[in-house]
Amino acid sequence: MTLRLVSWNVNGIRAAAKKGMVDWARAESPDVLCLQEVKAQPEQVPEEILALPCHQTYSRPERKGYSGVGTLSKVEPLQSIEGFDPRFDSEGRLLRSDYDGFTLLNVYFPNGKASAERLAYKMDFYTSFQEYCRKLRDEGRSLVICGDVNTAHKEIDLARPKENSGISGFLPEERAWIDSFLEDGYLDSFRLFNEEGENYSWWSMRTRARERNVGWRIDYFLISDDLRDKIAGAGIMADVMGSDHCPVYLDLRL
After folding, report:
1. What is the model's pLDDT at position 206?
2. Which residue among the candidates 31, 148, 219, 251 is catalytic per the annotation?
3. 157 vs 159: CA distance, rounded Å
4. Which of 78, 102, 41, 139 is CA-nearest to residue 250?
């Protein structure tokens, strides 16, 4: 049995629903669909999305119209848990779903571009999240982590690395955190199958960057290394429209 897991920052679930997300979800029919930047309270999710034939869980950020994640799953999780650290949980950035064989973490990591304070918040989030994952691994859990990490790891992961070397999203300390996280025993699933450049998952909407493929790869499936032999495929769905991000996927054998 192979599960297809898809992760997509939809930049507003209500806007995405108006841009064909429901038709896409029915046609693609992933086993698990993880959404980030939902920008809606659970009761504000469009009816046509709630009507999709799957178990659905949404976070509840304190600030309305901001952040938020949702996990839609054909297989009902053994349990679903929102949040991981009281310091960050008010922004509704993490949903945990436990399945037979693995725990799925659907995460919308903070953006650090707005201010020095938000960059510090982002780095604190990274540190706390890494400790949380260590705790789960110590419990014997295999982890699948997906979402908008808001950092491009290496120069190959964005179109203009030199121009962006001083901008949050490609700062040395942000990139070093990804190094540290992978060293804890995780794999960047996409790079197991594709080592080429010009593969991006986000494009600025201001400069028609998507038409020119001037983008960043900031959406990931990070997998604990004990699941390596179960990874059947991973990729980027760059042709799927409806957001400034495109979906990324993981095929996992169980």
Report:
1. 84
2. 148
3. 7
4. 102
Residue 116 — φ and ψ, nearest 5°?
A: -60, -35
What span, in angstroms and rounded, lies between the C-alpha atoms of 154 and 217? 9
Average confidence (pLDDT) over 58-64: 97
The residue ranges of every structural domain in the chain are: 2-253
pTM score over 0.85: yes
Helix (H) or strand (E) holding 26: helix 21-28
C-alpha distances out from residue 170 to 138, 178, 214, 228, Å:
30, 11, 15, 27
3-state SS, residue 226: helix
Q: Which of 144, 208, 150 is nearest to 177 (CA)?
A: 150
Query: Could you confirm whether domain 2-253 is CATH 3.60.10.10?
Result: yes
pLDDT tens, position by position, 108-140: 999 999 999 999 999 999 999 999 999 999 999
The whole-angstrom separation of Cα 65 and Cα 38 is 8
What does the radius of gyration of the chain's CA atoms come to, in whole angstroms? 17
Beta-carbon neighbour count of residue 174 at 10 Å? Answer: 22
Local structure of 251: helix, strand or coil: strand
Whether 239 is catalytic: no
pLDDT in tens, 190-219: 999 999 999 999 999 988 999 999 999 999
- Token pair, residue 69, equals 């994640």
**Residue 3: closest CA among 241, 246, 231, 244:** 231
Continuous segment of H or E residues that includes residue 192: helix 189-193
